[in-house]
UniProtKB/TrEMBL annotation:
Pfam families linked to this entry: TPR_10 (PF13374), TPR_12 (PF13424)
Protein name, entry field: NB-ARC domain-containing protein
The keyword Coiled coil belongs to this UniProt entry's keyword annotation: yes
Domain of life: Eukaryota
Coiled-coil spans in chain: 26-53
UniProtKB keywords: Coiled coil
Amino acid sequence: MVVDPFSIVAGTYSLVDISARLVRYLHGFKESVAGTKDELESLEHEINSIRSISESIKDSFDHEVKNCSDKLVADPTKAEALWRNVSNTLRSCERRLNDLAEIVQHVAGEKSQDNRKGNKDHKYTATFESWKVQLRKNFKSAKIEQIQSDLIGYKHTLSLSLTLIGVIYQKESQSASDELVEIVNSLSVQVELLKPYLASSHQVDVRDSVRSVNALISSLSFNKFFELPQGVSSIYTGRKLESDRLKLEFLDALPSPGRSQKRFVIYGLEGSGKTQFCCKFAYDYRQHFHAVFWVDASSKERADKTFSEIAKKGGGEHNKLAGMNWLSSLDKPWLLIIDNAEDPTLPLETMLPASERGFILITTRNPAHKIYGTVGPGSFHFTGMDSNAASDLLLRAAGEPVPWNSRTKKSAFTIAEILGCLPLALVQAGKAVLKRRCSLHDFESYFKRTRQRVINTRRSSSGNEGPKFADSDTEINVFATYEMLYRGLAEKGTLESSDAIELLHMFAFFHRENIREDILLRAVKNPLLEQHAREKAPSQNVVAGFSIEFLKDKIADMLVYLFWISRGPPVMPRVLRDVEDLDDLHEDQIRAALSELSALSLIIYNASNHSYYIHPLVHTWIRERPEMKTTEQAVWCQAAATTLARSILLPSEGVGDSEEDADFRRGLLLHIDHVRKCQETIQAQITKNQRSRRWIWPVPKETMDDRQAGQIARFSLVYAECGNMQEAERLQRRAKDFFCGLLGLDHPVSRLLQVGLSRTYCVLGRPTEAAQLQSAVLEVCLRTKGPKAHETLSMMDMLGTTRMQQGKMKEAMELHKAALEGMSCSLGVMHPDALKAMNNLACVYSKYFEYEKTRELLTESSRGLVQTLGPTHPDTLIAQENLAMVYNDLGGSLRDDGHSIMLDVLVKRKEKLGREHPFTLLAMCHLARTKAERGDFEEAEALLYDGLTVAKQNLGETHFGTLYGRTHLGRVLLMQKRYGEAEDILVDTIKKYELSSAARNGDPLTAMRLLIDCYQEQNKIPEAIAVCERAIAGLRTIGGQDHVLMGKLEARLEELHAIQ
């Protein structure tokens, strides 16, 4: 243990000693001077509490640290951090007690101190009334009050730490785990109760200390994995009979021979507390499970996604099947919550991992799903709560102080009956009372008015606006309680409440989960960063001075500017819109608005990932309130799309290219998918409404403006980084066509979009289309910027890579050399773009079999990129992957190094990009190559077959990546002398190459060379000669007459003829 034991022991001794002296002083004053008794007793109580806690801390330290080995501690690191925190708090507390002692001595006077030296029980008396008055003033002074407030903070901190010490040192005891869970839960509640006090306190050290304790509490885990769809509410109550029955059936029942998996279904009304019940059960009995997970079964896409996340935790492939298989393979008990299983087209049996060690809870509104229950009654039907539990929940949500009197209980009981004892409605009703929208006693009349207003508004809004909510009493009651809170927020009339309502409207068109504050902050900050980067960029024309091209660009810029000005500011909430510089980000205002919504439970904070989520019923209610006309829906849906788009920083001009930016963008996919679906639904409704009025006015054609084009361009980047290249290409093409038509092909925005689309074409195996776009952009750069400009050199490097993909090695070599030379001179050899150009040049050398030169360049490039971009940046991983492959080609001991590098690259790609991303599939193929060279043929085959399954599905059978993988599968089979299988694979692969865009890029040559070897090993010499002649002809077609491979093929052809 690193913490100095003496500092703990000495600190507790000092506190006990000074506390005892102070209590003696205060006791004498209390009985001598009238009017100070209450103040002195309160101060004396705090000092005694600190003394008692200090003694307990010393006892714990003596017992736990002196008598226990670190091996017996659940987590020595946490124990050390806690003791360090205690030591710091003891020192701070001692300083404040010494401050108090000085004040007490000053008040008493030197003479009184001398009189008390010989008599500990001396009672100080005074004869002058004026002195008494002064004494009372002193003990009611602001300084004394502040010290007392500080001591309260230290007392709470030490008390929390003392309790947590016991938890950490007992956590390994399974017999005590039930009690420990309760203690940790209680500690979390105490920290929550302390937050208002800490917010108003000036004590930075106390705030930091409590924050440290809270972090330790949050980090304690009794499970390997513990993930819930939502946190357990601090005011949760009720359903105890059901919980006890479920525990009996799930956990207490004796195992029977050949027992089956334990499953239980919770079905019933939306808002009846089904998910909260499951979360509470999981939390209360978490110590019984090695792992707790959940799956969002609201749609097939969400179910697949959440199962993939489970697979990721298990270290397997990122797909649904892998997640289910991993759960099935666990040899310890696990709990899975399948939440919101509503979709009738999604068979529930496809989401049930097979394992007798598994426990599954299912929440649904569909009573037909109760057949999936396997223990006890198999299911619970949730409607309203028990009346007593319902009234208790309401009063807790309303913050009513206990004990509750009979009138309060009666009012709560009445409200509960009105709301059908539905938990969701009760919580919102309680929030309305807490926020003083009404009282418990006049709630009924207020609720009836609100309910009737909801019904009337719904009727008046029917017609062309499309279906809104159902007419059931239950739904209307729930919506009425939310309407009360909403109207209360609107009528507050403050800036915070107005911002909160605007954010709420916008969140209705985000996905309801993972709503992060940094989305809002980035949406404000990114446009300013991009503007700043544009202002810092060098002048666009450095070639011909004031030229026609320069003038055209300036006119295009002016047109864009005027177009934006004429349309006004972007459609966004005010708090995200009215920001002029980076120093005015409105962070406090954004957080204040989020706090308003969170206080009403309209959004709920999820501490596990620092985000907010919205209950499904609330999410629907916000979006489809009767007052929310289709036109208003369109406005807030556009606000959501604008905010998401502006939060995406395009990688250009030195911004947006960090790993953090890329990770953030990938996390937006859920929201982008949702907002685009909402846009489609709203547009369909608008079109329907317009058609119903076409006899008055013709239906206008759907068009796209610059903001929509900009949004889809940014969204396309997210789809590309998430591996959905087809959707990325579709969006990029639309954006490119719009801006090129508006601004011309030469404008910077048009160039950026053409480059982005060309990258996507490359990944999709369409290098010819990519090269056309890149050549056009390079020509513009050369004309307007000159051959030494950064953008020009970057385009040379990019086009060189595409030319290599086309098999035009000579041109690729020239472009890469020019790019590297230019960047090294203008940017420096350690600039990331120069290092990437070095990597690309090395790849061309490898095509000429110059492996030592390749290794030299790749070693320098890889090391430089690790230093400049970091070890997990995508460009760093590309360089390391290429280095691993050249190690594999060089052979010998380097192959082991190559294998290790490829293992690392694959792990990082899976973690960052997911298992199905094209770059991850490429890493799987390359790892298989290294394994085959090491003789691990079984593992190599498994990797290749797994990757090819995904590649065929996502990329297509004739995509160059799929064919590349099949080529190397043929190589692995050939190495095992499985000539017949290898021949079939290679012949079929070459045929598919001829049908693909990769037919002229040189890739078929590798497959052909392998097929020549395969034929020769089988003594099929005529067939080998025919393939060799085709390979020579193909190499000439792509301009490879002078390539080193031509000589190798011609020599091989002579050898085959000689054999024949």
